[in-house]
Every structure is written in structure tokens, then in C-alpha cells.
Fold:
Amino acid sequence: MTTATKKAPDKRTDLAGPGIGNYVDVEKILPKDYEPLLNPKDTQMAITAAKQYIEEGLSRELNLIRVEVPLIVDAQSGVNDYLDRDGSRTPVGFHISNDHNKNPIDAEVVQAATKWKRMALQQFQMTPGEGLFTDMRAVRKDYFVDHDHSIYVDQWDWERVITADQRNLTFLTQVVEKLWKVIKGAEQHVQQLFPKLKTKKYPNLPDKLTFLHAEDILDRYPDLPRKQRETAILQEYPAVFIYGIGWTLNPGCAVRKEW
Structure:
């Protein structure tokens, strides 16, 4: 198939959550009888408590320090991340006249902090075993908005310096288990502060993660697209970490790529 005749993928489908690629399907899965467990004031207090616990946990378990990520970057700096390879999901941009210094700037609102984090590791002279985390704010105006995607992004980002011999599945698994320990601990912490959050209506997170390779999931559901495979596996295991994301999948192949 030539480039001229090849149909471009639907970007909304690509960015949607597991198993969902359009607003009709989103509408089907959203609960009709949802009621918050806490009032607005207690909800904000619980969010704050969870964030504080996560910050302390990340610092303790992974030897990270908090660093503020910039909200705005120079468009020419190369720091901002694009969310695709064809440039269809562009950042919010604006011009800063900056007449005092006679140095006008074309600025962009951050979309993701991947490049910035790696530059920050060097800026703060991090050594192996050290790293940073940030409570990132970003704007992604071209996102498909659904039950777990928003135009305004508030998420944790972290990065840590490792050595070449640590690039293996054993080390990766150890790090992920520490992350899960922090997430699980945050759940227990806010439930202790706000007992109403502990309810059979919303089951607790499992104590342990299930680790699977992307090819194992493909072997299990060979006829399903990626998003539907991810949805299907979650019906068997409520918390899954997937190895091998980013590699081209090869159904039926017993060879597994190392991280």
C-alpha cells in the first residue's frame, strides 16, 4: 500500500482508554447512578492527603526529590513533547513580546514532561540511584476526552538515573513493586482518614500486581485489538503491569524482549 492510498489512523481511537474509541461507547460505560462518597470539602482534603502520601512515598522508596516542572516553555527549546509522530496533536502556543529585553518568545504550554525530566536530571547533577518527581500540570487540547482522559492533565511524573546493568526485567519489576506499594499505601491512608471511602461498592486495590508481557496478552486474545485486549485482561486481573510495550508484537513467538 502506498503512502498516497494508506488511510491515516483515527487519532481519537488511538488516544482513547482501554477498549474505548468513541463517545458512544464512553456513554455506555459511564455509571448512571454515581454518587460521591464524600462531600466537596472532604473530597479535597482526601485528595490532598493522597498527594502528600504519594510524594513522601516516592521520595522514600525511590530516592527522589520534588522538582517543579515548567508550565510554559520556549517553542524553540525542544523541551516540549509532542503526543504523536505526525504533528497532528499540537501544543497550545502564544507569543510573548518581551519588549524590555528585545527578545520576543514563541511560547508553548507543556503537553508532557518526558524530555524535560531527562534534562532536569542533568541540571540537578543526579547520580545513579537518585532522581526527581513532579506533580505535572499540562494541557492537551487535541485529546479524545473520555472517562479517564482530560484536556487538563494533572499527573505524577518521575525519572531516575540508572546504570546500564540495571536495564533488565528484574530491576524493572522491583521498581514497579515499590511504586505499587506507594499507591496501595495511599489508598489505605485516605481510607483511615475518611472511612466512608472503604466500601464494597468500590473494591480495594489488590495487594499485588500481576506482571504480564504484551505478547502473552496477545497470545491470549489474538483476535482483539490492543485496547480491547487490555480491557479483557483486566477482567481476569484487576491490576496489571505490562512488559514489552513499544516493541513490535510477534504472535506465537516464545522469545521475550528484555527491557
